[in-house]
Amino acid sequence: MFFSRLRRFGLPALCAALLAACSHSAPPWQLNDVSGHLPDLQFDLTSDTGKAVTAADFRGKYVLMYFGYTHCPDVCPLTLVHLHLVMQKLGKQADMVRILFVSVDPARDTPQVLHQYVTAFDPHIVGLTGTPQQIAAMAKRYRSAFNIDAKQANGDYTVSHGSIIYVFDRHGRARLIGNSTDTPDAIAHDLQLLMRQD
Amino acid sequence: MIRLALKLVALAALAVCAVAAAASSLKAEHGWVRWLPASLPAAGYVVIRNDGDKPVKLTGADSPDYGMAMLHRSMQKNGSDSMEMVDAIGIPAHGSVALAPGGYHLMLTDAKHAIKPGDTVHVSLHFDDGETLRVTWPVRPANAP
Lengths: 198, 145
Hints:
The complex is a heterodimer of chains A (198) and B (145).
Chain A: H1 2-25, E1 32-33, E2 44-47, E3 52-54, E4 62-68, H2 75-90, E5 97-103, H3 111-119, E6 125-129, H4 132-141, E7 147-148, E8 159-162, E9 165-168, E10 174-178, H5 184-197
Parallel strand pairs in A: 4-5, 5-6
Antiparallel strand pairs in A: 1-10, 2-3, 2-6, 4-9, 7-8, 9-10
Helix pairs in contact in A: 2-5
Chain B: H1 2-23, E1 26-34, E2 42-50, E3 56-62, E4 66-77, E5 80-85, E6 89-91, E7 95-99, E8 104-111, E9 120-127, E10 132-140
Parallel strand pairs in B: 1-10
Antiparallel strand pairs in B: 1-2, 2-7, 2-8, 3-6, 3-9, 4-5, 4-8, 9-10
């Protein structure tokens, strides 16, 4: 009796209610929402202009963060070009955003090299480097594994590194993650949504 | 008379060259290099088309403008980006392969002279069938899309 009633009246209503709930609560983000799951922006590193910087220097800015290294001719440029396109899409709003390129190869990435590298992509990028211990702590904080691969005969080596782009709001809270497969449109969309929210 | 003979020889030579060029079933198209500052390694990209009936492998490259040109591949796996050297890149019969950002590329290191965006560089691509394609590629800025 109950079931036949449910089938006749209740089930369609339940489905409608569920559908409404689903469409209502559909995440507005095109990247992945990590609010509350990753630690706030916090670090103590050296910028590409040679200055000691901390997360406090970026409070009030929306921050995109990516781990990479300068002897990376393919995938790091691909990601930084994506972020450069995001900045172009944002127009004036790009002033409210900073891109942090954190080196996982501090042995080769001096502030001077980092400065030449990041400024070749976009004026909103800040290169960060530090001691191996500082970099390891930073990568650990954001669960970003990196590994210096075996050296070749001529001393060259590659570094495998996290592919994640982290998005922090202007209070330094980790909000979203994406990677280089996310389109510049998707990243710009989410940044504008964040800006409208607070 | 001698002049005419010379002209004929020249024409014949041109014809032979044209036939030799047309005989190649491999084409390298849309090639370019992403420039990076501070003499950092650069990446070369190209689409290689194989109009022949047999698969061919790209087995190596060199350039008069760089000390080394290596076949590389970038991979994204388990949230990690890595890069490895590869011995060869296969191009199927009547098919093509793209060396493109985020995948296969030529890693160009030890530039022999200052190279900047707007320059052109020369690259030779070597294939397992003995063929070599000599190409000239534009050098684009670091943030070229």
